[in-house]
Write a structure and sequence with these properties.
This protein is of the alpha/beta class and 690 residues long. The strands form five sheets. Strands 1, 2, 3, 4, 5, 6, 7, 8 and 9 form a nine-stranded mixed beta sheet that branches. Helix 11 (290-314) packs antiparallel against helix 15 (386-410), helix 13 packs across helix 14 and helix 19 (544-575) runs antiparallel to helix 20. The chain is globular.
């Protein structure tokens, strides 16, 4: 960024649709620069998302190379390596952050060790754990086999079993290593150019191994330097359970073996090697998807229990029926229903990205039972009790949805989904000014599921802070925190990395808020802090089908509740009198806390007759709105988060724009676990009318 003399380091970053991460990386490089002269080159692999314009407006001194196609990792890096002017060259991934001492520590090491051609540092995962790829060996069939089969995990200190990641070497010990991670490689530029950069036949994966492997033919060696660290923040963004990933990765292994070893072996041995590589790939694909397979298996277990339960309920748990072996012929019902459920689940993406979708699970359950009923209706020899199917359907809906809600609420996912009863608790590490701005932006987003618990001071105790970073572990445990946000404007990168490393066992998600404070960086996602656009003219709430479902829901559930409450409160309604208070055009009994049951009768009557809804606008609101007054609502449930009238309008507009009957059910479920009471709304309405 200074151009008065030859650069000390040329830093090369390849971008493909991760501009926000590069912005954060460049900010960390700025803080690590010190007195060093840097040449920074960003190569964009045809991201098609205005990455160059986005970055150039913020870092105009950086050199940008824009490609018209995705050339792959190796070829894109080579474009920058060709024009590198620095004594040293740093190849670094865009989704990383460097500490303030990273560049100076690497230069100091290279200057003190002239035989070191390349060096890497300690790499941390987003959860603070040590990334084993920080130091590794050249992969062999045996080392790959021990990694895939878990032998390296069982015997981490064995050189025989733990060759792949050199696990017998302490992560805090300096050492010579065969291979560095392509996410961070600090080179002598002269050596890097002498080697010809990356082999461009490797599109993605394997090029870093190949480049390091070629160093052994020179007088240089490669060092691992744990005295400084970086965080590879998006390190697991590649879908390692995907078939495409498995294909590309194993193709790279094949290319590496073909390039360096194929001439030394017979045809039969080559066939064995290539077969082993693909067997390793298949095993890797299976092990990577074990969690998904387990998810499907647990769903099928509950699904089949519901079928059996429906059968038992239909025949009143009769021992004679249960013990009749002839009834085993109906197990084909389980097979057919399970097959339909798995097919529909895959179609609805119920076992991957939509695994927290309650509506999709209801669709899959309902369609599976409908499919079985259809088959048994037309194929008479396979006739099965319709009543048993109805009982089974009811059992499946209750059993599987209860389990689904439990799973959703145990998940640390920050996605706002139906059934998420409690918000994710967040601590923000930063100074008062930055934290206040971040908190305001978070709470103004009705589509987010965060609840900011408080602020942590980066240094000494400050007024209004819950504590300092030295107390972060205790505060996380005391407040049962789910996520920690670091305001990077307030805390050094080195201190942040130390904290993340120290808290790696706390099962907390760490996120970063850059200096610009316009987005939040997670492990594999970017959340913009700006307000969501609410410009849709035709709101989902206004659709005829949604209006019909909402009204039907109000009638169906208010009618029985009204009958029950009338019977319970009839004496009080007949023999006691109370004055009324007005809430808009409605009237309720005064002293809302004392007369809350009588007021609930009136509320249910208003809902039944259509003057109110279970979910709607606050009865105390004086704003003109298209919503009916409600027992609860999106605004009422988020009252502690709402600071301005504009925020209140945003929450209401979000409800109108994204409305479905599931949103009403979700709000009513959340109300059970909240402190919101309708009596409080009536008291507020009484004050407004006074």
């Amino acid at each position: 960024m200074r151009e008065t003399q030859s650069p000390d380091i040329t830093i090369v970053v390849v971008n493909y649709k991760v501009k926000e991460y590069i912005l954060n990386l460049l900010s960390s490089i700025n803080k690590a620069q010190g007195k060093l002269v840097l040449q920074i080159i960003v190569v964009d692999n045809n991201s098609q998302d205005d990455s160059i314009e986005f970055l150039q407006s913020r870092f105009p001194d950086v050199t940008y190379i824009s490609n018209t196609e995705n050339l792959g990792f190796g070829k894109a890096n080579n474009q920058a390596i060709e024009v590198a002017e620095g004594k040293y060259a740093l190849i670094i991934n865009p989704d990383t952050l460097v500490s303030e001492d990273t560049l100076s520590e690497l230069i100091k090491h290279m200057e003190a060790n002239p035989d070191c051609g390349a060096a890497g540092c300690k790499i941390l995962n987003p959860d603070g754990s040590f990334a084993p790829e920080s130091k590794r060996s050249v992969p062999t069939i045996w080392s790959s086999f021990t990694k895939v089969t878990g032998l390296s995990t069982l015997f981490p200190k064995s050189k025989f079993f733990s060759e792949y990641y050199l696990d017998w070497l302490d992560e805090n010990e300096k050492s010579k290593v065969p291979v560095l991670s392509g996410s961070f490689m600090f080179w002598r530029t002269e050596l890097l150019k002498e080697l010809g950069g990356f082999d461009e036949r490797f599109f993605m994966y394997g090029e870093d191994i190949d480049l390091c492997y070629r160093v052994q033919d020179t007088e240089y060696h490669i060092d691992y330097l744990p005295t400084t660290s970086i965080i590879h923040y998006k390190g697991e963004s590649t879908k390692k359970g995907d078939l495409k990933y498995t294909w590309i990765f194993n193709k790279a292994l094949y290319q590496f073996f073909d390039k360096h070893h194929s001439s030394n072996y017979s045809f039969l041995f080559k066939v064995f090697i290539y077969s082993s590589i693909w067997v390793r790939g298949i095993l890797s694909l299976i092990t990577s998807n074990l969690k998904g397979i387990g998810y499907i298996a647990s769903d099928l277990l509950l699904f089949n229990i519901s079928i059996v339960l429906g059968f038992l309920i239909r025949f009143e748990f009769s021992y004679e029926v249960v013990s009749n072996l002839q009834n085993l012929q109906f197990l084909w019902i389980n097979v057919l229903a399970s097959f339909i459920y798995v097919i529909l689940g895959a179609f609805l993406d119920l076992f991957r990205s939509n695994k927290e979708s309650i509506s999709n699970q209801i669709k899959a359950i309902g369609a599976s039972y409908a499919g079985v009923a259809l088959v048994t209706f037309f194929v008479r020899e396979y006739a099965f009790s319709r009543l048993a199917l109805i009982y089974g359907l009811a059992s499946a809906l209750i059993l599987m949805l209860v389990v689904k809600v439990i799973q959703i609420n145990k998940s640390k996912s920050d996605t706002k989904v139906t059934g998420k009863l409690k918000r994710l608790k967040v601590l923000i590490v930063g100074n008062e000014e930055e934290t206040s701005e971040i908190r305001t932006k978070i709470h103004s987003r009705p589509d987010w599921n965060y609840e900011v618990i408080g602020r942590i001071s980066p240094t000494e105790t400050q007024s209004g802070a819950l504590g300092t970073v030295s107390q972060l572990k205790d505060l996380i445990r005391a407040y049962q925190v789910d996520q920690v946000f670091f305001a990077l404007k307030s805390i050094s990168y080195k201190e942040m990395l130390l904290q993340i490393s120290d808290l790696q066992n706390e099962k907390v998600v760490f996120k970063l808020v850059p200096d610009s404070m316009d987005f939040i960086l997670g492990k594999s996602n970017v959340e913009y802090l700006e307000s969501i656009p609410l410009v849709q003219v035709q709101f989902d709430y206004s659709k005829t089908i949604n209006q019909l479902l909402k009204r039907l829901f109000d009638i169906v559930f208010s009618a029985p509740l009204l009958v029950v409450l009338l019977l319970l409160t009839l004496p009080s309604l007949l023999f006691t009198s109370s004055k009324k208070i007005k809430a808009g055009s409605l009237t309720f009994y005064e002293n809302p806390q004392k007369n809350k049951w009588k007021n609930r009768v009136r509320l249910l009557w208003f809902v039944f007759t259509g003057r109110m809804s279970f979910v709607g606008n606050a009865v105390y609101s004086t704003r003109s709105t298209r919503l009916k007054p409600g027992f609860t609502g999106n605004v009422q449930m988020n009252k502690p988060r709402i600071q301005t009238t504009s925020d209140e309008e945003n929450y209401e507009l979000y409800y109108l724009q994204n409305y479905s009957i599931w949103m009403d059910i979700d709000i009513l479920m959340k109300m059970i676990f909240s402190t919101h009471q309708f009596a409080d709304d009536l008291e507020a309405a009484a004050k407004e009318g006074a």
